Protein backbone atom coordinates (compact mmCIF):
# COMPACT_ATOMS: atom_id res chain seq x y z
CA UNK A 1 0.00 0.00 0.00
CA UNK A 2 2.91 2.29 0.63
CA UNK A 3 3.92 1.89 -2.99
CA UNK A 4 0.41 2.82 -4.16
CA UNK A 5 0.39 6.01 -2.08
CA UNK A 6 3.79 6.87 -3.50
CA UNK A 7 2.52 6.32 -7.03
CA UNK A 8 -0.44 8.65 -6.52
CA UNK A 9 1.80 11.36 -5.13
CA UNK A 10 4.12 10.89 -8.09
CA UNK A 11 1.26 11.31 -10.56
CA UNK A 12 0.10 14.45 -8.77
CA UNK A 13 3.56 15.92 -8.84
CA UNK A 14 3.94 14.99 -12.47
CA UNK A 15 0.67 16.69 -13.48
CA UNK A 16 1.64 19.88 -11.68
CA UNK A 17 5.16 19.85 -13.05
CA UNK A 18 3.88 19.17 -16.53
CA UNK A 19 1.57 22.17 -16.27
CA UNK A 20 4.40 24.38 -15.02
CA UNK A 21 6.65 23.23 -17.87
CA UNK A 22 4.13 24.47 -20.44
CA UNK A 23 5.00 28.04 -19.48
CA UNK A 24 8.13 30.11 -19.94
CA UNK A 25 9.97 32.87 -18.14
CA UNK A 26 9.93 36.49 -19.30
CA UNK A 27 11.67 39.54 -17.86
CA UNK A 28 9.06 42.12 -16.92
CA UNK A 29 9.32 45.24 -14.77
CA UNK A 30 12.75 44.17 -13.54
CA UNK A 31 11.40 40.79 -12.40
CA UNK A 32 11.25 37.28 -13.81
CA UNK A 33 7.66 36.25 -14.39
CA UNK A 34 6.52 32.79 -15.44
CA UNK A 35 3.70 32.75 -17.98
CA UNK A 36 1.64 30.18 -19.84
CA UNK A 37 0.94 31.44 -23.36
CA UNK A 38 -1.09 29.06 -25.52
CA UNK A 39 -3.43 29.25 -28.51
CA UNK A 40 -3.80 31.79 -31.27
CA UNK A 41 -6.27 34.60 -31.75
CA UNK A 42 -7.52 37.47 -29.60
CA UNK A 43 -5.73 37.52 -26.27
CA UNK A 44 -7.44 36.48 -23.04
CA UNK A 45 -5.44 36.87 -19.83
CA UNK A 46 -6.37 34.95 -16.69
CA UNK A 47 -5.06 36.57 -13.50
CA UNK A 48 -4.95 34.70 -10.19
CA UNK A 49 -4.81 36.09 -6.67
CA UNK A 50 -3.60 34.87 -3.28
CA UNK A 51 -2.28 32.19 -2.57
CA UNK A 52 -2.58 30.52 -5.95
CA UNK A 53 -0.70 30.50 -9.25
CA UNK A 54 -1.54 29.84 -12.89
CA UNK A 55 -2.38 26.22 -12.04
CA UNK A 56 -5.70 27.51 -10.67
CA UNK A 57 -6.82 28.15 -14.26
CA UNK A 58 -5.74 24.78 -15.71
CA UNK A 59 -9.31 23.69 -16.58
CA UNK A 60 -10.27 27.12 -17.92
CA UNK A 61 -7.52 27.33 -20.53
CA UNK A 62 -8.63 24.52 -22.85
CA UNK A 63 -12.14 25.77 -23.80
CA UNK A 64 -10.71 29.18 -24.61
CA UNK A 65 -7.89 27.80 -26.77
CA UNK A 66 -10.35 25.49 -28.52
CA UNK A 67 -12.58 28.47 -29.31
CA UNK A 68 -9.72 30.27 -31.01
CA UNK A 69 -8.23 32.49 -28.34
CA UNK A 70 -4.67 33.11 -27.26
CA UNK A 71 -4.68 32.39 -23.53
CA UNK A 72 -2.09 34.08 -21.32
CA UNK A 73 -1.79 32.96 -17.70
CA UNK A 74 0.96 34.60 -15.67
CA UNK A 75 2.17 33.69 -12.21
CA UNK A 76 2.16 36.93 -10.26
CA UNK A 77 5.50 37.89 -8.74
CA UNK A 78 6.16 35.84 -5.65
CA UNK A 79 3.86 33.04 -6.79
CA UNK A 80 4.26 29.86 -8.83
CA UNK A 81 7.31 29.93 -11.06
CA UNK A 82 7.80 33.69 -10.92
CA UNK A 83 10.54 35.39 -8.97
CA UNK A 84 10.16 35.22 -5.19
CA UNK A 85 9.71 38.53 -3.43
CA UNK A 86 13.07 39.94 -2.40
CA UNK A 87 11.61 42.09 0.33
CA UNK A 88 8.27 42.72 2.00
CA UNK A 89 8.58 46.30 0.83
CA UNK A 90 8.67 45.13 -2.81
CA UNK A 91 4.97 44.42 -3.07
CA UNK A 92 2.69 47.45 -3.46
CA UNK A 93 -0.37 46.92 -5.62
CA UNK A 94 0.89 49.46 -8.13
CA UNK A 95 3.93 47.30 -8.92
CA UNK A 96 1.68 44.40 -9.82
CA UNK A 97 -0.40 46.64 -12.13
CA UNK A 98 2.86 47.69 -13.79
CA UNK A 99 3.81 44.00 -14.09
CA UNK A 100 0.64 43.44 -16.07
CA UNK A 101 1.35 46.39 -18.36
CA UNK A 102 4.93 45.23 -18.88
CA UNK A 103 3.91 41.63 -19.54
CA UNK A 104 1.50 42.59 -22.30
CA UNK A 105 4.15 44.82 -23.84
CA UNK A 106 6.75 42.04 -23.77
CA UNK A 107 4.28 39.58 -25.30
CA UNK A 108 3.26 42.05 -27.99
CA UNK A 109 -0.39 42.13 -26.94
CA UNK A 110 -2.16 45.40 -27.71
CA UNK A 111 -5.67 44.42 -26.66
CA UNK A 112 -6.78 41.83 -24.17
CA UNK A 113 -9.76 40.41 -22.32
CA UNK A 114 -8.97 40.23 -18.60
CA UNK A 115 -10.40 37.39 -16.50
CA UNK A 116 -9.84 38.36 -12.87
CA UNK A 117 -10.08 36.46 -9.60
CA UNK A 118 -9.42 37.50 -6.00
CA UNK A 119 -6.44 39.96 -5.95
CA UNK A 120 -6.39 39.67 -9.73
CA UNK A 121 -9.52 41.85 -9.51
CA UNK A 122 -8.14 45.07 -8.02
CA UNK A 123 -4.92 44.68 -10.02
CA UNK A 124 -6.63 43.98 -13.34
CA UNK A 125 -9.32 46.61 -12.84
CA UNK A 126 -6.69 49.21 -11.99
CA UNK A 127 -4.91 48.23 -15.20
CA UNK A 128 -8.17 48.65 -17.13
CA UNK A 129 -8.62 52.11 -15.62
CA UNK A 130 -5.06 53.12 -16.50
CA UNK A 131 -5.03 51.52 -19.97
CA UNK A 132 -8.68 51.35 -21.11
CA UNK A 133 -7.71 51.21 -24.78
CA UNK A 134 -5.85 47.95 -24.10
CA UNK A 135 -8.82 46.14 -22.59
CA UNK A 136 -11.33 44.46 -24.88
CA UNK A 137 -13.55 43.08 -22.10
CA UNK A 138 -13.58 42.15 -18.42
CA UNK A 139 -14.62 39.06 -16.53
CA UNK A 140 -14.64 39.40 -12.74
CA UNK A 141 -15.15 36.67 -10.16
CA UNK A 142 -14.93 36.46 -6.37
CA UNK A 143 -13.20 39.79 -5.93
CA UNK A 144 -13.84 43.39 -4.90
CA UNK A 145 -13.00 46.95 -5.94
CA UNK A 146 -14.07 49.28 -3.12
CA UNK A 147 -12.69 50.39 0.23
CA UNK A 148 -15.35 48.86 2.48
CA UNK A 149 -14.33 45.35 3.52
CA UNK A 150 -16.45 42.23 3.30
CA UNK A 151 -17.77 40.84 6.60
CA UNK A 152 -15.28 38.01 6.22
CA UNK A 153 -12.38 40.44 6.01
CA UNK A 154 -13.42 42.35 9.12
CA UNK A 155 -13.69 39.21 11.24
CA UNK A 156 -10.91 38.63 13.75
CA UNK A 157 -11.67 34.91 13.61
CA UNK A 158 -11.15 33.38 11.13
CA UNK A 159 -9.53 36.08 9.02
CA UNK A 160 -7.57 38.86 10.74
CA UNK A 161 -6.01 36.68 13.43
CA UNK A 162 -4.58 34.50 10.66
CA UNK A 163 -2.27 37.27 9.47
CA UNK A 164 -1.95 39.34 12.66
CA UNK A 165 1.55 40.51 13.65
CA UNK A 166 3.79 37.64 14.81
CA UNK A 167 0.85 35.22 14.49
CA UNK A 168 0.87 35.53 10.69
CA UNK A 169 4.55 34.65 10.19
CA UNK A 170 3.97 31.55 12.32
CA UNK A 171 0.72 30.33 10.73
CA UNK A 172 1.21 31.47 7.14
CA UNK A 173 5.02 31.38 7.17
CA UNK A 174 6.03 28.32 9.16
CA UNK A 175 2.81 26.35 8.57
CA UNK A 176 1.79 27.61 5.11
CA UNK A 177 -1.80 27.65 6.35
CA UNK A 178 -3.28 29.72 3.52
CA UNK A 179 -1.83 27.82 0.56
CA UNK A 180 -2.43 24.53 2.33
CA UNK A 181 -5.57 24.15 4.39
CA UNK A 182 -6.88 27.60 3.43
CA UNK A 183 -7.46 26.70 -0.21
CA UNK A 184 -8.79 23.26 0.75
CA UNK A 185 -11.43 24.85 3.01
CA UNK A 186 -12.50 27.25 0.25
CA UNK A 187 -13.62 24.72 -2.35
CA UNK A 188 -16.93 22.85 -2.47
CA UNK A 189 -15.73 19.38 -3.46
CA UNK A 190 -12.92 18.96 -0.97
CA UNK A 191 -12.34 15.26 -1.60
CA UNK A 192 -12.16 15.92 -5.33
CA UNK A 193 -9.83 18.84 -4.77
CA UNK A 194 -7.48 16.68 -2.74
CA UNK A 195 -7.45 14.16 -5.57
CA UNK A 196 -7.17 16.65 -8.45
CA UNK A 197 -4.92 19.35 -7.06
CA UNK A 198 -3.33 17.70 -4.04
CA UNK A 199 -0.78 20.07 -2.58
CA UNK A 200 -0.21 21.98 -5.83
CA UNK A 201 -0.49 25.36 -4.12
CA UNK A 202 1.33 24.60 -0.88
CA UNK A 203 4.21 22.89 -2.66
CA UNK A 204 4.97 26.03 -4.66
CA UNK A 205 5.97 27.72 -1.42
CA UNK A 206 8.47 25.40 0.25
CA UNK A 207 9.81 27.65 3.00
CA UNK A 208 8.66 30.59 5.17
CA UNK A 209 10.34 33.28 3.02
CA UNK A 210 8.69 31.98 -0.16
CA UNK A 211 5.30 32.24 1.61
CA UNK A 212 5.76 35.94 2.33
CA UNK A 213 3.27 37.11 -0.35
CA UNK A 214 0.52 35.01 1.26
CA UNK A 215 1.05 37.13 4.38
CA UNK A 216 1.44 40.48 2.65
CA UNK A 217 -1.64 40.32 0.44
CA UNK A 218 -4.11 39.93 3.34
CA UNK A 219 -2.53 42.95 5.04
CA UNK A 220 -3.22 45.05 1.95
CA UNK A 221 -6.97 44.59 2.28
CA UNK A 222 -8.32 47.81 3.84
CA UNK A 223 -10.35 47.26 6.97
CA UNK A 224 -10.81 50.95 7.82
CA UNK A 225 -9.75 54.43 6.68
CA UNK A 226 -6.42 54.10 8.47
CA UNK A 227 -5.39 51.23 6.19
CA UNK A 228 -2.55 52.15 3.86
CA UNK A 229 -4.39 50.91 0.78
CA UNK A 230 -7.65 52.70 1.61
CA UNK A 231 -6.93 55.57 -0.86
CA UNK A 232 -6.14 53.10 -3.63
CA UNK A 233 -9.48 51.39 -3.21
CA UNK A 234 -11.34 54.71 -3.02
CA UNK A 235 -9.70 55.60 -6.34
CA UNK A 236 -10.48 52.20 -7.82
CA UNK A 237 -14.13 52.43 -6.85
CA UNK A 238 -14.33 55.84 -8.51
CA UNK A 239 -12.94 54.34 -11.73
CA UNK A 240 -15.58 51.62 -12.10
CA UNK A 241 -18.17 53.79 -13.94
CA UNK A 242 -15.50 54.70 -16.50
CA UNK A 243 -14.81 51.06 -17.39
CA UNK A 244 -17.16 51.00 -20.37
CA UNK A 245 -15.86 47.81 -21.97
CA UNK A 246 -18.22 44.80 -21.92
CA UNK A 247 -18.01 42.88 -18.67
CA UNK A 248 -19.20 39.53 -17.36
CA UNK A 249 -19.62 38.77 -13.66
CA UNK A 250 -19.15 35.14 -12.60
CA UNK A 251 -19.53 34.06 -8.97
CA UNK A 252 -19.48 30.99 -6.78
CA UNK A 253 -22.83 30.22 -5.19
CA UNK A 254 -21.13 29.08 -2.01
CA UNK A 255 -18.58 31.92 -1.78
CA UNK A 256 -18.07 32.93 1.87
CA UNK A 257 -15.19 35.37 1.32
CA UNK A 258 -17.01 37.66 -1.10
CA UNK A 259 -20.74 36.97 -0.79
CA UNK A 260 -22.84 36.67 -3.95
CA UNK A 261 -24.23 40.16 -3.23
CA UNK A 262 -20.83 41.41 -4.39
CA UNK A 263 -21.61 40.00 -7.83
CA UNK A 264 -24.72 42.19 -8.01
CA UNK A 265 -22.65 45.15 -6.86
CA UNK A 266 -20.25 44.64 -9.79
CA UNK A 267 -23.16 44.33 -12.22
CA UNK A 268 -24.47 47.67 -11.00
CA UNK A 269 -21.10 49.41 -10.86
CA UNK A 270 -19.75 48.44 -14.29
CA UNK A 271 -21.62 50.27 -17.08
CA UNK A 272 -21.77 47.37 -19.56
CA UNK A 273 -21.90 44.38 -17.24
CA UNK A 274 -23.94 41.22 -17.63
CA UNK A 275 -24.61 38.39 -15.24
CA UNK A 276 -24.03 37.37 -12.62
CA UNK A 277 -23.50 33.85 -13.83
CA UNK A 278 -23.56 31.64 -10.77
CA UNK A 279 -21.49 28.45 -10.69
CA UNK A 280 -20.67 25.84 -8.09
CA UNK A 281 -17.82 27.19 -6.03
CA UNK A 282 -16.58 28.76 -2.85
CA UNK A 283 -13.82 31.36 -3.09
CA UNK A 284 -11.62 29.21 -5.35
CA UNK A 285 -14.47 28.54 -7.77
CA UNK A 286 -12.10 27.46 -10.55
CA UNK A 287 -11.38 24.30 -8.55
CA UNK A 288 -15.03 23.28 -8.78
CA UNK A 289 -16.07 24.86 -12.09
CA UNK A 290 -12.91 25.69 -14.02
CA UNK A 291 -13.98 24.32 -17.38
CA UNK A 292 -17.51 25.71 -17.03
CA UNK A 293 -16.04 29.15 -16.34
CA UNK A 294 -13.98 28.87 -19.52
CA UNK A 295 -17.11 27.99 -21.47
CA UNK A 296 -18.98 30.97 -19.98
CA UNK A 297 -16.15 33.27 -21.06
CA UNK A 298 -16.25 31.82 -24.59
CA UNK A 299 -20.01 32.39 -24.79
CA UNK A 300 -19.65 35.92 -23.44
CA UNK A 301 -16.95 36.82 -25.95
CA UNK A 302 -19.07 35.40 -28.77
CA UNK A 303 -22.01 37.52 -27.62
CA UNK A 304 -20.00 40.72 -27.66
CA UNK A 305 -18.71 40.12 -31.12
CA UNK A 306 -16.42 37.15 -31.12
CA UNK A 307 -13.17 37.75 -32.90
CA UNK A 308 -12.56 41.45 -33.34
CA UNK A 309 -11.42 42.57 -36.74
CA UNK B 1 16.05 32.85 12.60
CA UNK B 2 12.81 30.98 13.22
CA UNK B 3 10.31 33.83 12.85
CA UNK B 4 10.45 37.24 11.19
CA UNK B 5 7.75 39.88 11.51
CA UNK B 6 8.22 42.89 9.22
CA UNK B 7 5.07 44.80 10.12
CA UNK B 8 4.55 44.79 13.86
CA UNK B 9 2.36 47.86 13.46
CA UNK B 10 -0.08 46.20 11.08
CA UNK B 11 -2.21 46.04 14.20
CA UNK B 12 -1.00 48.87 16.48
CA UNK B 13 -1.95 47.02 19.67
CA UNK B 14 0.65 44.37 18.89
CA UNK B 15 3.41 46.94 18.50
CA UNK B 16 2.29 48.67 21.69
CA UNK B 17 2.65 45.41 23.58
CA UNK B 18 6.35 45.28 22.70
CA UNK B 19 6.81 49.00 23.34
CA UNK B 20 5.45 48.44 26.83
CA UNK B 21 7.34 45.24 27.50
CA UNK B 22 10.71 46.58 26.34
CA UNK B 23 10.05 50.11 27.67
CA UNK B 24 10.80 51.59 24.25
CA UNK B 25 11.10 55.38 24.38
CA UNK B 26 10.89 57.48 21.23
CA UNK B 27 12.72 55.90 18.32
CA UNK B 28 15.43 54.26 20.43
CA UNK B 29 15.53 50.48 20.22
CA UNK B 30 16.53 48.54 23.36
CA UNK B 31 20.27 48.08 23.78
CA UNK B 32 19.85 44.38 24.49
CA UNK B 33 17.54 41.76 22.94
CA UNK B 34 14.95 39.90 24.97
CA UNK B 35 15.00 36.17 25.65
CA UNK B 36 12.48 33.48 26.40
CA UNK B 37 12.67 29.78 27.10
CA UNK B 38 9.94 27.65 25.53
CA UNK B 39 8.16 24.63 27.02
CA UNK B 40 10.56 22.22 25.28
CA UNK B 41 13.49 23.94 26.97
CA UNK B 42 14.57 25.81 23.84
CA UNK B 43 16.10 29.24 24.32
CA UNK B 44 15.23 32.12 21.97
CA UNK B 45 16.36 35.66 21.40
CA UNK B 46 13.78 38.36 20.56
CA UNK B 47 15.14 41.31 18.61
CA UNK B 48 13.16 44.44 17.80
CA UNK B 49 13.95 46.05 14.46
CA UNK B 50 13.52 49.51 12.98
CA UNK B 51 13.22 51.06 9.55
CA UNK B 52 13.67 54.64 8.40
CA UNK B 53 10.38 56.43 8.02
CA UNK B 54 8.38 53.92 10.06
CA UNK B 55 7.34 53.90 13.72
CA UNK B 56 9.59 51.96 16.08
CA UNK B 57 9.70 49.08 16.57
CA UNK B 58 8.94 48.24 12.94
CA UNK B 59 9.45 44.53 13.21
CA UNK B 60 10.61 41.66 15.32
CA UNK B 61 12.89 38.68 14.85
CA UNK B 62 12.98 35.51 16.89
CA UNK B 63 16.21 33.54 16.70
CA UNK B 64 16.78 30.13 18.25
CA UNK B 65 19.82 29.74 20.46
CA UNK B 66 20.48 25.98 20.47
CA UNK B 67 23.43 24.35 22.12
CA UNK B 68 26.54 24.64 19.96
CA UNK B 69 26.52 22.29 16.92
CA UNK B 70 23.04 20.94 17.77
CA UNK B 71 20.43 21.05 14.98
CA UNK B 72 16.97 22.44 15.60
CA UNK B 73 13.89 20.21 15.75
CA UNK B 74 11.13 22.03 13.87
CA UNK B 75 8.33 20.50 15.90
CA UNK B 76 9.91 21.73 19.12
CA UNK B 77 10.50 25.18 17.66
CA UNK B 78 6.83 25.32 16.69
CA UNK B 79 5.81 24.38 20.24
CA UNK B 80 8.03 27.07 21.71
CA UNK B 81 6.80 29.70 19.26
CA UNK B 82 3.25 28.74 20.09
CA UNK B 83 3.97 29.51 23.74
CA UNK B 84 5.40 32.87 22.63
CA UNK B 85 2.20 33.63 20.70
CA UNK B 86 0.16 32.64 23.72
CA UNK B 87 2.19 35.04 25.87
CA UNK B 88 1.67 37.78 23.30
CA UNK B 89 -2.09 37.31 22.90
CA UNK B 90 -2.53 37.36 26.66
CA UNK B 91 -1.18 40.92 26.62
CA UNK B 92 -2.51 42.51 23.41
CA UNK B 93 -6.11 42.64 24.57
CA UNK B 94 -9.55 42.29 22.96
CA UNK B 95 -10.50 41.54 20.27
CA UNK B 96 -7.11 39.82 20.02
CA UNK B 97 -7.39 36.98 22.49
CA UNK B 98 -5.85 33.60 23.27
CA UNK B 99 -9.27 32.09 22.65
CA UNK B 100 -9.29 33.57 19.15
CA UNK B 101 -5.82 32.19 18.57
CA UNK B 102 -6.96 28.74 19.63
CA UNK B 103 -9.99 28.95 17.34
CA UNK B 104 -7.75 29.76 14.41
CA UNK B 105 -5.41 26.94 15.33
CA UNK B 106 -8.32 24.51 15.38
CA UNK B 107 -9.58 25.65 11.96
CA UNK B 108 -6.12 25.34 10.44
CA UNK B 109 -5.15 22.26 12.44
CA UNK B 110 -1.95 23.62 13.92
CA UNK B 111 -0.35 20.56 15.53
CA UNK B 112 1.34 22.27 18.47
CA UNK B 113 -1.96 23.86 19.52
CA UNK B 114 -3.88 20.59 19.71
CA UNK B 115 -4.92 19.46 23.19
CA UNK B 116 -2.43 17.12 24.76
CA UNK B 117 0.35 18.11 22.40
What are the main properties of this structure?
heterodimer, A: 309 residues, alpha/beta, eight-stranded mixed β-sheet, globular, B: 117 residues, alpha+beta, four-stranded antiparallel β-sheet, 3 helices, 4 strands, 34% helix
Explain how this protein is built.
The complex is a heterodimer of chains A (309) and B (117). Helices cover 41% and strands 17% of the residues of chain A. Chain A has 309 residues and is α/β, with parallel strands linked by helices. Chain A has an eight-stranded mixed β-sheet with strand order 1-2-4-3-5-6-7-8, sandwiched between helices. In chain A, helix 11 links the parallel strand 7 and strand 8. In chain A, helix 2 packs parallel to helix 12 and helix 3 crosses helix 4. Chain A is globular, with a radius of gyration of 18 Å. The N and C termini of chain A lie far apart (57 Å). Chain B is an alpha+beta fold. Chain B contains three helices and four strands. Chain B has a four-stranded antiparallel β-sheet with strand order 1-4-3-2, with helices on one face. The longest helix of chain B is centred in the C-terminal third of the chain and has 19 residues. Chain B is globular and about 40 Å long. At the A-B interface, helix 6 and helix 7 of A face strand 1, helix 2 and helix 3 of B.
Short structural summary:
The complex is a heterodimer of chains A (309) and B (117). By secondary structure, chain A is α/β, with parallel strands linked by helices.
Amino acid sequence: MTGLAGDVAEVERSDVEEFARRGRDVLVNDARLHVLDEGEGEAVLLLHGNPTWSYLWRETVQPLCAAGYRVIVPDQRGFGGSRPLGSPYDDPIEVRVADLAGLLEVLGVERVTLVLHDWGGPIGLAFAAAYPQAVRALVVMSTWAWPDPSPFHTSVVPWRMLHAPVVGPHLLGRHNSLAGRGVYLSVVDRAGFRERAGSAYADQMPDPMSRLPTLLFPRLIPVDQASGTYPFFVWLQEQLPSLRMPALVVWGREDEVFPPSYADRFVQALPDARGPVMVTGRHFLQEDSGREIGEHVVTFLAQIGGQES
Amino acid sequence: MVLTEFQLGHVPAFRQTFIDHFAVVGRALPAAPGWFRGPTGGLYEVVLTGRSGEPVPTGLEVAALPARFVPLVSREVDQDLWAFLDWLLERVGPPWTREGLRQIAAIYRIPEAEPGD
